[in-house]
Design a protein that fits this description.
5-stranded antiparallel sheet; 47% helix; alpha+beta; Serine Threonine Protein Phosphatase 5, Tetratricopeptide repeat; 10 strands; single chain; Jelly Rolls
């Protein structure tokens, strides 16, 4: 749209207005520049100049408050500057937190509580905000509020659950209360809580956390199951260990590693990868014994386990499997083996023992002098207290030199036919 300028008076008026707007703009820009310049300085005078130049900028009184608090050690002056900052911008959680810290130093409990509540309202889901609020609540003895904020931390930060759970447990060492008030239903958080309870040997509480974890039906890493089962075996909680292994079929994709009524030995034909955990085969490599899956030799499947021995004296081959069983029950055991160049007195043997009492239920003949697949088998009855067997390759006599190659395959253990 064009504005007709028919006289010099109108032209002069328009020019004057344009000049005034230009001057105002330049003044505003200069004010902002000078305020930013002075705010970058750390002395009080410069910060106060910045505030006079830009009185509506909340960041300048906040910086002045930090100067009073950290440099001049004047909490009253810091509180006044922080109050100015939150009045100008009440949506900045950091301003409220620093005000709460000053109130705490001044002994103003109510002021500290109010500042904390405002900080949480300003930023309710950010983990850093919740973390600071939770720790300040702990100092105040407000455990319930602290747990509520730790829940926010654990729900939104993947790196802080372990540290948060440590503080929660210190404040409220009650598994039920923490599951209800602090621990969000997230599998990674449950795993961290499980690890904490295992480290403190809280077996009953750990079982409650595992139940919640399993109820989520979310995938978890198998190593967490292995660690938990190792702990349960150490605590002789065999029934619960069996349940955890059964549930791991869906949680960790271990359905192929479950025992059956026809064979309690897992991966007895070595057709699966050896997990070295849980109730699959466990092994320890050493300079005296080499373990390998051999696709060139098998009895029924497509490979077997090759055990290469060259030792001055070993007690076993370093591979074993833990097998849950029933007390006072009879079992049939069978396996196939072949050997090559096995030299030394005696030889390796299959041995089945009670893991805890070390009572021996079965020992095979020496696994040697067999250039073709040979079967060994036997039947035994467990004792009244036996719940967990260990199947291993034992060296008899122990401590004497031995060398050679041994293949084992098609290993089975099943309840004996009545």
């Amino acid at each position: 749209m064009r504005i007709p300028l028919s006289s010099w008076g109108k032209k002069a008026l328009l020019l004057t207005l344009a000049l005034l707007n230009g001057v105002a703009y330049c003044g505003f820009t200069l004010s902002e520049f000078l305020a930013a310049y002075f705010s970058r300085k750390v002395d009080r005078v410069s910060l106060q100049r910045a505030i006079r130049l830009q009185p509506g900028n909340a960041d300048f009184p906040y910086r002045l408050g930090r100067h009073f608090w950290l440099v001049e050690r004047s909490p009253e002056a810091a509180a006044q500057s922080y109050r100015t900052a939150v009045a100008l911008n009440p949506h900045k959680a950091r301003y409220w937190f620093d005000l709460a810290a000053v109130y705490q130093f001044l002994g103003d409990t109510q002021g500290q509580k109010d500042a904390l509540e405002h900080a949480i309202l300003a930023d309710p889901t950010t983990p850093d905000v919740a973390w600071e609020a939770a720790n300040l609540y702990l100092v105040q003895g407000e455990t319930d509020k602290a747990l509520r904020e730790f829940r926010v931390v654990m729900a939104n930060d993947p790196y802080l659950p372990s540290a948060a759970l440590q503080l929660c447990w210190r404040a409220e060492p009650d598994v039920d209360a923490l599951l209800r008030d602090a621990v969000p239903p997230i599998s990674s958080v449950y795993v961290a809580f499980l690890d904490l309870l295992v480290s403190k040997k809280e077996t009953v509480g750990a079982a409650k956390v595992w139940a919640q974890l399993a109820h989520l039906h979310e995938p978890i890493e198998a190593r967490h199951v292995f660690d938990y089962i190792r702990y349960l075996v150490g605590q002789r909680e065999i029934d619960h260990a069996r349940l955890v292994w059964q549930q791991s079929a869906s949680l960790c994709g271990l359905s192929a590693y479950q025992p059956s009524t026809k064979n309690l030995v897992i991966n007895g034909d070595f057709s699966l990868l050896v997990l070295n955990g849980g109730f699959d085969w466990l092994y320890q490599q050493s300079k005296d014994v080499s373990l390998a899956l051999d696709p060139t030799q098998s009895h029924t499947g497509h490979r077997s386990l090759l055990i290469s021995i060259d030792s001055r004296g070993i007690e076993d081959a370093g591979i074993r499997q833990l097998i849950p069983v029933e007390a006072n029950a009879s079992y049939d055991f069978s396996a196939y083996f072949k050997s090559e160049d096995m030299q030394g007195a005696g030889g390796p043997r299959f041995a089945i023992q009670d893991l805890y009492s070390e009572a021996t239920y079965f020992v095979s003949d020496p696994l040697k002098d067999a250039d073709s697949w040979q079967k060994i088998n036997g039947t035994f009855t467990t004792g009244p207290d036996t719940r967990l067997l260990v199947l291993r390759i034992q060296r008899l006599p122990a401590g004497s030199p031995i060398r050679g190659k041994l293949w084992i395959d098609d290993i089975r253990l099943a309840p004996a036919a009545r």
